[in-house]
Input
Amino acid sequence: MKILIETYGCQMNTADSELIQGILSAAGYGVAHTLDEADVIILNTCAVREKAEARILGRLTNMLPLKRIKPGLLIGVVGCMAKHLGQKLIEQVPYVDFVAGPDQYRALPEMIGKHHGHAEVRTEFDRSELYSGCSPKRPKGVTAWISIQRGCNYVCTYCIVPFTRGAERNIPACDILAEVKRVAADGCSVVTLLGQTVNSYRDGDITFAKLLKLVAQVDGIEQIRFTSPHPCGFSDELIEVIATEPKVAKFVHLPLQSASDDQLALMRRRYTYEEYLTIVKKLRTQCPEIAISTDIIVGFCSESEADYEKTKRALMENRYAFAFLFAYSERSLSIAARSMKDDVPREVKQRRLAEIIDIQQKISKEIYQSRIGQKVAVIVEGFSRRDPGQAVGNTRDFKTTIFPRGEAEPGDWVEVEIEDATSQTLKGRFVRILSKGRHPVVEEQIDVGISLGPTVSEE
Ligand code: 5AD
Ligand code: SF4
Output
């Protein structure tokens, strides 16, 4: 039986899809590359905004004809939306065959193998589930996602994630290091450490900052990225490691959400704008080459024009390299949905969102275009799918860079002279190899670095 997994949402889900693929491969299932080839289709879903769920429901509707053509085909929904809707999903989409929440992936081989026509729903939390002993199946390449934490303890009022992924659990440091060594042995040199609030990681004496140092010591690892930290607990120790450890990317995604202290309090973000700014200032002072990106929500409950103006000003003052900008979307289960009024009119949310998208796009473009004429070091991560003659990589400050590949191979550090830029990408000319990677040419690795990427927005 061959499995096809479609992934929606964040990088955590991308990593979970690789975990699921690993669990199913170990149980003897193969990988399908197209819908036609698949005996089982799994949608690994997101519930963070209404639009994400609507998109997945639309995708399920499109799959109905496939079910008719191929009677044995199984369709499963896993991930955050599976946990959020549970049994309701089966009521809404009766041809879904199985539903599994983020702590139930070990049960998937059984749910698929022993499927007897009745939809099975398994969405219980399991606080002890860290998926130890499970090996994710990753596409061949030089980049790897490494989950270091599951769940979240912060419970921001707008957010559904603590209710879909459960409480925070940290994977033992020895398991993380073993996994990093394993991917390095497979030829991977760029790792991204993942967690819902990655800097709250702790295993005994090992803080997140210490973990970064330990990962940096793994032979073959060249670049270490991480996402997403929370401004709380963004320690001086962590700032120092980012500034001084050459293998740690000079890039931090630091979600602000709002620059109004009233809004931050309502969101239960646990910091003031001033406290957030202190981290930004320390990062920029100690590491002048640092690039910072952020997440913003406009139109959260009772956001006034004055609150919004503060956020808008913060975007202009902080000059983020890029930002993920969202209109507030009320999610059932979240604290805000239970206790606050979603009272900013849709048109107002949309107007505010459109305005900050415009502002951010100009800033991103200016920042990216300021690199034109410079020579930058880029780690090559793959080739463009559209044009395999173009290599794709990232600078140390996580700017995706495209250039005619020349002699460059994945894993190499190369020098590129920047000739052009959009608000999301640098484009340049291959100058020379700075250091050869130990890695073979991997043709299938494509468009990688873009995934943490550019200014995006929804709704
Ligand atoms: N509505 C809009 N955006 C949200 N986010 C999380 N929950 C919501 C919501 N209910 C955004 C936050 C978070 C990012 C992953 O998604 O900005 O940092
Ligand atoms: Fe990821 Fe959040 Fe979506 Fe879950 S709800 S998949 S954690 S973005």
Residues 2-122 form a domain with the Rossmann fold fold (CATH 3.40.50.12160). The radius of gyration is 22 Å. Residues 9-10, 12-13, 46-48, 79-80, 161, 164-165 surround iron/sulfur cluster (ligand 2) (CB under 6 Å). Residues 441-459 have pLDDT under 50 and may be disordered.
